[in-house]
């Protein structure tokens, strides 16, 4: 391998690496049913194509390679790794995965950017995500987390509207800032998360360098029957770092896959990305004292009302070998919980419990839990049949419950809490968290300026009545913020106008090749009137 150039990035030399690891062809090529391929079948021009099974296999499989992309977080990548318990948290939960310092659990993690389609840009200013599936001895625990600590809404009814407004316009097929700001001003619960996105937290410098937050307030139970309410945080051990809008734009012009590249290269070079997992804790006693709703996923918990407990480390140390098999087919479901973690109690979670399954049934099929990457370490169910994969389909075991013939039996979880908190939420929107964010979470004037510049930049293409509503909403949050955004917006608009005036738009034909247009066969026909339009 004289041509093996070690200065290539790992992503660029994957094929060379494969060849290095396999000095000879990996075997005989076969048709789909296993018959070895004769070399004369590989070229089909002027042959009896209908008798060529290789051709039929090839074309019929390539045309059906695609499955629906995820409706959100379609553009992503993933890796395997492990979670190691570093602190004793048995006081809070009896979940095996978090018990026993030094204990390691295999995980698969998927990273994505929220609203891009599969081929989209990772440099977009939007939420990034990390979903982790812990293959625990008590079943899969899935934690879905996002790169900012608050969510956009707490009424699940708007889940569809955020997907529609933040993704492509049905006519123009373009991302449309007008629809985004329109929805934000009509549903002001969005504004707090939008503020986080408009700040430096909106474009982290790659997946490795972002903190992520599972958002919901989870109920935990201890083996002594105590209940705790916690918010988990994954804190990157590399330290959070971000890209400015200008830096991101510069990178994007050359590399829309910057985050994927960075993650793959780092893992391949053994710079394993890692996060500390910790939790902010409120006891039932604390819960009664707080003057805010700790289950509201659009707001932060107030400093001084909770304490933080470290749990362990997440380390990603193995790139996946096949993205489709292990990442595209991965089905993360926040309802996949384990004993000791009864899970979130808010109303958004209740809807997630129902509809992640729905999305995965649609995307991957009803038996998605039997796809290799989703299979738990141990599983015995009464689920049978349906579209493949069916795995062993429980072979000849009894297929109904209860039965008296030794099919799988339930156990008694002695520590399971017998009370369930019922959380009621109010519809009113509190703008104080957004005010607090602008004045206190943005740590200095320089960050505030970048934040304002990012808002201004995104307002320029928005239709003026919606801009007015944005300014009004900002005014209700903080008067000086709205004045600064308004002033910046007017300057940006004037600058844009000046540029437009200086360079009048001209159309020019660059056609170099003859085309049918130049040799019309018939006069253009008027479009027939379609009564349905
Ligand atoms: C009613 C509320 C919600 C709905 C309807 C919803 C819907 C969805 C859907 C349909 C997917 C694609 C799932 C798939 O096909 O595999 C998804 C992915 C995701 N969602 Fe949500 N979501 C909701 C709330 C949340 C919340 C509160 C979080 C915060 C942690 C969240 C974080 C994520 C993440 C991290 C992914 C990516 C999973 C992956 O990488 O495969 N979602 N969501």
CATH fold description of the largest domain: Catalase HpII,  Chain A, domain 1
Mind telling me which CATH architecture of the largest domain this is? Beta Barrel
Q: Whole-number average pLDDT?
A: 94
* Helicity, as a percent range: 25-40%
C-alpha geometry: globular
Strand order, sheet with most strands: 4-3-2-1-8-7-6-5-9
Biggest sheet character: 9 strands, antiparallel
Q: Round the Cα radius of gyration to an integer and report it.
A: 27 Å
Number of separate domains: 3
Unreliably modeled segments:
none
Bound molecules: protoporphyrin IX containing FE
Number of strands: 9
Listing every helix as H and every strand as E from the N terminus to the C terminus, the arrangement reads HHEEEEHHHEEHHEHEHEHHHHH
Total number of helices: 14
What gap, in angstroms, lies between the N and C termini?
Answer: 63 Å
CATH C-level of the largest domain: Mainly Beta
Structural class: alpha+beta
How much strand content do the residues show?
5-15%
């Amino acid at each position: 391998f004289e041509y093996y150039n070690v200065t290539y990035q790992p992503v660029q030399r994957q094929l060379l690496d494969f060849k290095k690891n396999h000095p000879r062809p990996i075997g005989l090529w076969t048709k789909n049913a296993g018959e070895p391929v004769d070399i004369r079948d590989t070229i089909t021009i002027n042959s009896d194509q209908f008798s060529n099974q290789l051709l039929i296999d090839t074309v019929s499989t390539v045309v059906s390679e695609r499955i629906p992309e995820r409706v959100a977080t379609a553009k992503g990548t993933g890796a395997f790794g492990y979670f190691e318990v570093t602190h004793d948290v048995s006081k809070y939960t009896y979940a095996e995965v978090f018990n026993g310092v030094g204990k390691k659990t295999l995980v698969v993690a998927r990273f994505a950017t929220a609203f891009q389609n599969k081929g989209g840009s990772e440099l977009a200013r939007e939420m990034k995500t990390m979903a982790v599936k812990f293959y625990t001895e008590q079943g899969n625990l899935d934690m879905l987390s996002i790169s900012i600590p608050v969510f956009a809404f707490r009424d699940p009814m708007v889940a569809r509207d955020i997907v529609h407004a933040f993704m492509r316009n049905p006519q123009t097929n373009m991302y449309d800032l007008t629809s985004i700001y329109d929805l934000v001003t009509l549903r002001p619960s969005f504004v707090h998360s939008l503020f986080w996105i408009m700040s430096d937290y909106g474009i982290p410098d790659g997946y490795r360098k972002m903190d992520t937050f599972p958002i919901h307030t989870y109920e935990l139970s201890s083996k002594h029957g105590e209940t705790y309410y916690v918010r988990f945080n994954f804190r990157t051990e590399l330290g959070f770092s971000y890209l400015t809008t200008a830096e991101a734009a510069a990178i994007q012009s050359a590399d829309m896959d910057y985050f994927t590249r960075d993650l793959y290269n780092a893992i391949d070079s053994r710079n394993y990305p890692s996060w500390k997992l910790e939790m902010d804790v409120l006891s039932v006693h604390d819960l009664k004292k707080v003057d805010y709703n700790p289950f509201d996923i659009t707001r932060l918990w107030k400093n001084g009302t909770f304490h933080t407990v470290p749990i362990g480390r997440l380390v990603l140390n193995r790139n996946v070998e096949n993205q489709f098999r292990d990442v595209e087919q991965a089905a993360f479901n926040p309802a996949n919980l384990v004993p000791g973690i009864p899970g979130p109690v808010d109303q958004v979670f209740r809807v997630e419990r129902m509809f992640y399954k729905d999305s995965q049934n649609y995307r991957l099929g009803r038996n998605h839990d039997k796809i290799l990457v989703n299979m738990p370490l141990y599983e015995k169910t009464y689920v049978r049949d349906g579209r493949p994969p069916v795995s062993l389909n429980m072979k000849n075991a009894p297929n109904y419950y209860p039965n008296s013939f030794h099919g799988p039996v339930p156990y008694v979880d002695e520590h399971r809490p017998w009370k369930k908190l019922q959380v009621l939420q109010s519809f009113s929107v509190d703008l104080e968290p957004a005010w607090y964010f602008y004045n206190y979470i943005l740590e200095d004037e320089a960050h505030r300026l970048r934040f304002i510049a990012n808002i201004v930049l995104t307002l320029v293409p928005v239709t003026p009545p919606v801009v007015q509503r944005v300014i009004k909403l900002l005014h209700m949050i903080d008067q000086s913020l709205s004045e600064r955004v308004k002033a910046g917006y007017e300057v940006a608009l004037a600058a844009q106008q000046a540029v437009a005036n200086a360079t009048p738009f001209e159309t020019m034909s660059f056609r170099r090749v003859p085309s049918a247009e130049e040799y019309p066969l018939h006069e253009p026909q008027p479009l027939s009137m379609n009564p349905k339009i």
